[in-house]
Design a protein that fits this description.
Layout (H helix, E strand, L loop, with lengths): L1 E2 L2 E2 L2 E7 L7 H9 L4 E5 L12 E6 L13 H15 L4 E4 L1 H9 L4 E16 L1 H5 L9 E12 L6 E5 L5 E6 L2 E4 L7 H10 L1 H7 L3 H32 L5
Parallel strand pairs: 3-4, 3-5, 5-6, 6-11
Antiparallel strand pairs: 1-4, 2-3, 7-8, 7-9, 9-10, 10-11
Helix pairs in contact: 1-7, 5-6, 5-7
Length: 245
């Protein structure tokens, strides 16, 4: 575990599901806000903290599909913890796989998307997204980084906040639980590591490692600013808008 976000002066927990995929600029922005961010490496030996000790949870990505959790004991353990976190009304932010897990726990289906999204794309705010405080300061259309082949349906009672062309459902919120299919936290250096690690998937979209890195580099500054906005708005959501899940 490493310390680097607090909500109401309580530690914010980050669950890292894959060694390749960290929290990038989200971790950086939390540190700039003076927040204590406890990163837990989710594996068979992971020891989850008592819920009373944390103010919220951020769930990271992994190449594993959310609908195959039953095949992975360490993810079953994680889901059991997240179920308790939702019952305790803890603010939760899921990124990519993390968003899909939260969607499933809230009663939505996760499935294969018609096509993989790898690289930089644009997403746009829905009418609900333009009004939602977690997207305060966001432009109506903005660049994001993607690396996924699955998608989530919108949970009952949740709002679709952002949508895309190749994958419609990009962001949802229900109370103080929100999920984003995209990445704002990834730098071009990290994009290069992903491209090296997942090189076989690049072939499915007809892109090269250099193209992926160049796409990310071009949009990196804008995405980084938006990552900071999302962190700020998520923290404010946890501190002042603890809606029921």
């Amino acid at each position: 575990m490493s310390i680097c976000g607090t909500i109401d002066n309580v530690i914010l927990l980050g669950i890292q599901n894959c060694a390749t995929e960290g929290f990038g600029l989200f971790e950086t922005h939390l540190a700039e806000h003076g927040k204590d961010f406890l990163i837990l490496q989710a594996d068979h030996d992971a020891e989850y903290p008592n819920l009373e000790e944390i103010g919220g949870v951020v769930i990271g990505g992994t190449p594993i599909s959310a609908y195959t959790i039953s095949d992975h004991p360490f993810l079953q353990k994680e889901v059991a913890f997240l179920e308790k976190a939702l019952e305790a009304n803890k603010p939760c932010l899921g990124i990519c796989f993390g968003a899909q897990v939260l969607a499933q726990l809230l009663g939505a289906k996760v499935r294969r998307n018609e096509r993989m999204e790898i690289g930089c794309y644009e997403v746009r705010l829905t009418s609900q997204g333009r009004r939602d405080p977690v997207l305060n300061g966001f432009p109506s259309t903005f660049p994001v980084f993607h690396w996924h082949g699955d998608t989530f349906e919108i949970p009952p009672g949740a709002d679709l906040l952002a949508e895309g062309d190749d994958c419609r459902n990009q962001m949802f919120r229900r109370g103080n639980v929100m999920g984003i299919q995209f990445h704002l936290e990834v730098t071009h250096e990290e994009a290069g590591k992903w491209a090296e690690r997942y090189v076989s998937e690049l072939r499915t979209v007809g892109k090269t490692e250099n193209e992926i890195v160049a796409e990310c580099r071009e949009k990196e500054a804008e995405m980084g600013n938006l990552a900071g906005l999302l962190v700020r708005n998520f923290l404010a959501l946890g501190e002042g808008s603890r809606g029921a899940v």
